[in-house]
Amino acid sequence: MAVTASMVKELREMTGAGMMDCKKALAATDGDMDKAVEFLREKGLAAAAKKAGRIAAEGIVATNVSEDLKVASIVEVNSETDFVAKNETFRNFVAAVAAQAAKTKTEDIDTFLSEAWSLDSSKTVKEELASQVAVIGENMNIRRFKKVTTEAGFVQSYLHGEGRIGVLVEVETAVVNDAVKEAARNVAMQIAAIAPKYVTRAEVAEDYIAHEKEILKAQATNENPGKPENIIEKMIEGRLNKELKEVCLVDQTYVKDGDLTVQKYLDGVAKENNTTITIKSFVRFETGEGIEKKEENFAEEVAKQMGL
């Protein structure tokens, strides 16, 4: 019996197995859908479907940087448990995903997942993910990625806590020596620790500032009834400046030297190396951020199993 695309699609939806695996299963069972499901289950390839409903909020962040430091990628791949996140097979897979992300031409996660897997072009990235789910035994998810390229400088990476947090920093400079690279790494560590939202104030949207001013004005007015308008305005500006110093990287207090801002630290390193150093952009991924983890209630689980 000829295997059609619609049959492959149906089996894939039933089992969650990869496209090529479904095609092989149908060919091996002469198009019998039930036998094809059994075939995949026996091979351990249908397990991904049942596991796909579980929440994957653990995992790791990985980076990949080219030898010339001009191209880099960062990815977050989630697993269900921290135990699997430390598994060598899982970490090797995540490293391969990061390497693929460094070569991709897309910025869209769905398009990325549909690309041919770099280590086996007969599979897509998504199909390789499903295979890894079957092998490792937990639901996994390639949640996000970012590729950074630069012409006038280099990209520095930093991983914290065995991949709990990952950072890429794009640095524009004419000098790329050990001292400048160390400065970039220190800035990456700052980003990991303090989590700024912007590089400079110029990146902050005007509507964000206007909105914050409204909130700060209401706060200042409520806390200081009867104060003159000009005094209130000065209070608003002071509080806004303090807030912007916290969210803008170059204005933050440098964590390794509280007497400096990040900008002053970079200016000092630049002067010592007869160059200029500008942070053009950064990416910070923290594993599981924004994912609502399922809270397990053991008593309820026992009651459910006992039919109570």
UniProtKB/TrEMBL annotation:
GO terms for molecular function: translation elongation factor activity. Residues 81-84 are annotated as: Involved in Mg(2+) ion dislocation from EF-Tu. The keyword Cytoplasm applies. Keywords: Cytoplasm, Elongation factor, Protein biosynthesis. It is found in: Cytoplasm. Belongs to the EF-Ts family. Associates with the EF-Tu.GDP complex and induces the exchange of GDP to GTP. It remains bound to the aminoacyl-tRNA.EF-Tu.GTP complex up to the GTP hydrolysis stage on the ribosome. HAMAP family: EF_Ts. NCBIfam families: tsf. This is Elongation factor Ts. The gene is tsf.
